[in-house]
C-alpha cells in the first residue's frame, strides 16, 4: 500500500510539474504577444516585412502547390465514384471547392507553414540568441520585438492567407482534372457545381482562419527561438517544439473558428 501511494504521489508530481511548465510557457507567450501588439503601434520597417514575406512565402509555394494539388486529386478519386453511383455527379465540384476552401486549404497550408516557416523562424532567431546577436541589439537600444518579431508576424499574417487562396485554386484544379479526365464528368458540370454550391464566405472564412494560423506560427516560432537552450542541440529542440506546438494549436484553433464562423 505504501509503495502504491509513493508511485501515485510521484505520478501526481510529474503531472503537476508538466502542467506548471505549460502554464509558464502560456504566460510567457501571452506577455510576448502583448509586447508585440504594443510594438505594432510604432512604424514597422516595410523593408524587413517585404524581405520576410519573400523569404517565408515564395519559398513555400512549391510545397503548398504539391500538397493541395494531390489533396484535390485524392478527394475527387474518393468521392466521385460514389456520387456518380447515386446520380449526384452535379455536386462534385461544389463538394471539392467547399471542403478545400473551408477546411483542407487553410489547415494544410497552416501545417505546411508550421513545418516550413515556423521552423525557419525558430532556427534563425535561436541561432541569433546563441551567437548573442539579440543581446547586441539590446546594447544598441534596438527592440528585439520590433526588429525581429513584428516583421515576421505581419509577414506570416499576410503570406499564409495568400498561400491559402493559391492552394485552394490548385486543389480545385487537381479535383477538376481527375473529375474530367478520369471520371468522365463534363468540365461545364464541374464548374457549374462550384458556381451553384460555393459561396464567397466559404473562401473568405478559410482566409480568416489562415490569418489566425499565420499569427500563431509567427508568435510560437519567435517564442521558442527567443527561449531556446544554448548550443546547436538547443536550436534543434526549439525548432521541433515550434513545429509540434504550432500544428496542435492550428488543429484546436481550426475547430474553434469553424464553430464561430460557420
From TrEMBL:
The keyword DNA repair does not apply. The chain crosses the membrane at residues 53-75, 145-163, 169-191, 203-226, 238-261. Keywords: Membrane, Transmembrane, Transmembrane helix, Transport. GO terms for molecular function: phospholipid transporter activity. It is a multi-pass membrane protein. InterPro entries: ABC_MlaE_roteobac, Permease_MalE. GO terms for cellular component: ATP-binding cassette (ABC) transporter complex. Pfam families: MlaE. It is found in: Membrane. Belongs to the MlaE permease family. This is Phospholipid/cholesterol/gamma-HCH transport system permease protein. It comes from Selenomonas ruminantium.
Amino acid at each position: 500500500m505504501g509503495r502504491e501511494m509513493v508511485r501515485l504521489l510521484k505520478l501526481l508530481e510529474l503531472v503537476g510539474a508538466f502542467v506548471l511548465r505549460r502554464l509558464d510557457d502560456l504566460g510567457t507567450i501571452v506577455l510576448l504577444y502583448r509586447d508585440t501588439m504594443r510594438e505594432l503601434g510604432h512604424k514597422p520597417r516595410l523593408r524587413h516585412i517585404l524581405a520576410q514575406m519573400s523569404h517565408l512565402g515564395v519559398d513555400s509555394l512549391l510545397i503548398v502547390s504539391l500538397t493541395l494539388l494531390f489533396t484535390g486529386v485524392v478527394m475527387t478519386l474518393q468521392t466521385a465514384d460514389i456520387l456518380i453511383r447515386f446520380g449526384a455527379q452535379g455536386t462534385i465540384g461544389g463538394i471539392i471547392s467547399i471542403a478545400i476552401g473551408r477546411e483542407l486549404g487553410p489547415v494544410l497550408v497552416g501545417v505546411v507553414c508550421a513545418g516550413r516557416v515556423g521552423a525557419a523562424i525558430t532556427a534563425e532567431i535561436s541561432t541569433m540568441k546563441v551567437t548573442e546577436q539579440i543581446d547586441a541589439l539590446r546594447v544598441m537600444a534596438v527592440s528585439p520585438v520590433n526588429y525581429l518579431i513584428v516583421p515576421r508576424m505581419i509577414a506570416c499574417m499576410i503570406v499564409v492567407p495568400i498561400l491559402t487562396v493559391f492552394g485552394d485554386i490548385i486543389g480545385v484544379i487537381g479535383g477538376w482534372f481527375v473529375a474530367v479526365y478520369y471520371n468522365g464528368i463534363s468540365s461545364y458540370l464541374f464548374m457549374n457545381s462550384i458556381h451553384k454550391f460555393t459561396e464567397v464566405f466559404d473562401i473568405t472564412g478559410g482566409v480568416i482562419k489562415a490569418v489566425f494560423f499565420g499569427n500563431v506560427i509567427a508568435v510560437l516560432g519567435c517564442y521558442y527561438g527567443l527561449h531556446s537552450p544554448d548550443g546547436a542541440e538547443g536550436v534543434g529542440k526549439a525548432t521541433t517544439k515550434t513545429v509540434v506546438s504550432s500544428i496542435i494549436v492550428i488543429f484546436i484553433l481550426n475547430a474553434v473558428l469553424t464553430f464561430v464562423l460557420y
